[in-house]
Amino acid sequence: MIAIGQEDQKMTKVDTTAGTVVGMTERKVLAFKGIPFAAAPVGARRFLPPQPVPAWTGERNATQFGALARQSSFELEQFMGGGDMAQSEDCLTLNVWTPAVDDARRPVLFWIHGGAFFSGGAAIPWYNGGGLARRGDAVVVSCQYRMGAFGFLQLRHLLGDDYSSSGNLGILDQIAALEWVRDNIAGFGGDPSNVTVFGESAGGMSIGTLLGTPAARGLFHRAIAQSGAAQAVSEIGHAEAVTAKVIDEAGLTAATAHKLLEIDAETLNAAQDAVVSEMFEESVENARRGNLGMPFQPVHDGVVLPDHPLDAVRRGDAAGVPLLIGTTKDEMRLFTLFSPRLQGDDESALVSLASVIFGSEDDGRAAFESYRSRRPGASPSDIFNDMLTDYVFRIPAIRLAEAQSAHQPQTRMYRFSWEASIMGLDLRAFHGIDILFCFDNVRMPGMEMIFGDRVEAAHGLGANTSEAWLAFARSGDPSHHGLPAWPAYDTDQRATMDLDAECSLLSDPGAEDRALWDGVR
Q: Is 331 among the residues known to form the active site?
């Protein structure tokens, strides 16, 4: 590693296993962007596991983000500042923020972005790692991975054993990026023996999956799963049914499926878009079948995932990994903005959807009434929002915490409760609001629309949340002087830190609601 000139100059070189990269100072830390960690998965490499990145000669400019993975449009990513960024199949790049390229061996926080496994990217402004690196004297890494049909299309039954892992390419890409960290991060001032993976939504679900993935063992040492657990896994039959839909939308048949290897990316992306649109229209019904309405997600394929990740965690396969896991209080508020079926107050229609989840009309009505009894004056849509928040996010998080706490005493749970009102929309503590706080990005330009006249309180919560994440990355314990005592999670007390303007420790919040989900899958 070679720093150019004096400390006040901006460009810095680091030697990696594939060649030299040149980054620059940004937000008072060094930023290296768009570093390839695997060969471009194009041409003959489409639908195959990530391959080693070819070495380059000379110096590679690392001051611009790489292109996003090919993907479908998702309103949530636009809301978070995703904008119209370039997309490409050549997307396997990562980014590094570090206070210095020295031998300090700082803790490493490795971010996996969300987006329902078909959208998003590491370049979204909310994910900028500079603030977190600077606050915690840590190294922050974010990576891209293949998504949608490019990253989670099950093809072994159509194209043969060479494609036996095609349903989990996005997970294998994340593992390849973690291998790059193991081999290179010391040159960026990081400690390869102290890597914490953290991610939100599909990123949190990826982490739940990685905990049960044999190929990922030893590549990370702590895990923070935000609004995602180990539930987002398709069985082979469902994954193959999604593949059939994609093939049909692409104008192919099972007999001509080999042409998926050669059709242009735009055609494949359009087929993916059609399948995403269709399945999201049936999101609640699909959730009952175990896939959360997401057509593309990791696959229990017997190859990359020999077992369902939650079963592997319950068995103790991730026993050595401290876990911090939680959800926002009102996860589903944002999603219902984009679903006319869930916006209104047609109680009979919402109870009918609850019946799909609970398995019968009587059980659905009983659950709805039980939720109502603890929410006097709540509208039917508010009640159903809370039910969906529990079903899709909170209960899977609790189940993963239960599974891991049986083997790992450093398991902790949180609830993020900061409420926001944006452009007159009552979003409350919506899905994704915690990202700004854990990255210590609450001072970013434009955040006034989220924080309004609560800016100072937001800054305080940003400090408390990011310090907790950093403390966890350093020691496996998120406790710090700005929070109340934060005991480990167990099934007796179910200690849960409530992260809000005033943070407090809760014991089994929403216990009556939680009990309703026993036996519901």
A: yes
pLDDT interval class at 74 (50, 70, 90): low
Q: Are 385 and 330 in contact (CB under 8 A)?
A: yes
Q: Which of 331, 355, 402, 467 is catalytic?
A: 331
Phi-psi region of 446 (alpha: psi -120 to 50; beta: other; left: phi over 0): left
Distance of CA 128 to the CA centre of its chain: 15
What pLDDT digit, counting tens, does each position of 80-131 carry? 555 678 899 999 999 999 999 999 999 999 999 999 999 999 999 999 999 9
Question: Residues 27, 141: one domain?
Answer: yes
Amino acid 6: pLDDT: 39
Instruction: Establish whether 369 is a catalytic residue.
Output: no
**Catalytic residue at 475?**
no
Q: Which domain holds residue 369?
A: 322-516
Number of domains in the chain: 2
Same domain, 118 and 50: yes
**Of 238, 431, 466, 467, which is the active-site residue?**
431
Are 42 and 112 a contacting pair, CB within 8 Å? no
Residue 454's pLDDT is what? Answer: 87
What are phi and psi for residue 441, nearest 5 degrees?
Answer: -110, 25
Residues 337 and 453 in one domain: yes
Residue-level pLDDT at 335: 83
279 pLDDT above the threshold of 80: no
> What is the three-class DSSP state of 15?
strand
- The residue annotated as part of the active site, out of 201, 381, 405, 417, is 201
pLDDT band at 226 (very low <50, low <70, confident <90, very high): very high
